[in-house]
Design brief:
It is built from nine helices and five strands. It is of the alpha+beta class. α4 crosses α8.
Length: 200
């Protein structure tokens, strides 16, 4: 019921086009051709550290990734851009990713933001969280200003904008489909696999 309620009230932006469902959208051929996503046969999860549905999906997605067919990829990006509150944590995600530790500390970030209501957008609070999690603050600050992190933020914002992502979690499949979870795992995993294999 929670998932159903979430899609009815959060994803109603999909209701603009009567031919699309609230949890499923196919982009145009032109949008697909001009996609900023480089990988073919890919699934990209658009998530946020402020999204408890994203946090709840972690174990299911880890299991799902193990079932992906050879030649396909699964990656996560943080929703990014200036017009969405969920995007506030994108610089943290990109910096932790550049440090090579994002996946390792993701649960801790979810827990801090969602469960403990820690404001990681506040620099002093963030520094305390980094120390508590044994993350080198000086290295974090240096990488945060690096070209690599700025480029990653630009790339994530471009994908967010190109696919008109306004809520999380969302899944972009084969550069073609934008899908929200409209059923429980493992049924949702099977749906994503079906869409992933459609263009092969």
């Amino acid at each position: 019921m929670t998932v159903l309620c979430y899609h009815i009230f959060v994803f109603n932006s999909f209701a603009k086009d009567d031919s699309q469902t609230q949890a499923f959208r196919e982009v145009s051929t032109e949008q697909r051709a001009n996609s900023p996503i480089k990988e073919e046969h890919s699934i990209i999860e658009v998530m946020s550290y402020g999204c408890h549905y994203c946090a709840a999906n972690e174990e299911n997605l880890a299991e799902f990734i193990r079932t992906l067919p050879q030649g396909s990829t699964f990656t996560s990006i943080h929703i990014a851009g200036d017009n969405n509150g969920l995007a506030a944590y994108a610089p943290i995600f990109a910096t932790l990713e550049a440090m090579g530790i994002e996946k390792h500390v993701r649960d801790g970030a979810y827990n801090a933001v969602i469960t403990r209501n820690v404001d990681l957008t506040n620099e002093n609070v963030l520094n305390g969280w980094l120390v508590k999690n044994h993350i080198d603050v000086d290295k974090y600050k240096a990488l945060r200003q690096s070209t690599a992190v700025k480029e990653r933020l630009r790339e994530m914002a471009e994908i967010t904008r190109h696919y008109d992502i306004t809520a999380t979690p969302m899944f972009i499949i084969n550069k073609r489909y934008v899908v929200a979870q409209d059923r429980e795992f493992p049924a949702f995993a099977q749906r994503m696999l079906t869409l992933l294999n459609e263009d092969k």
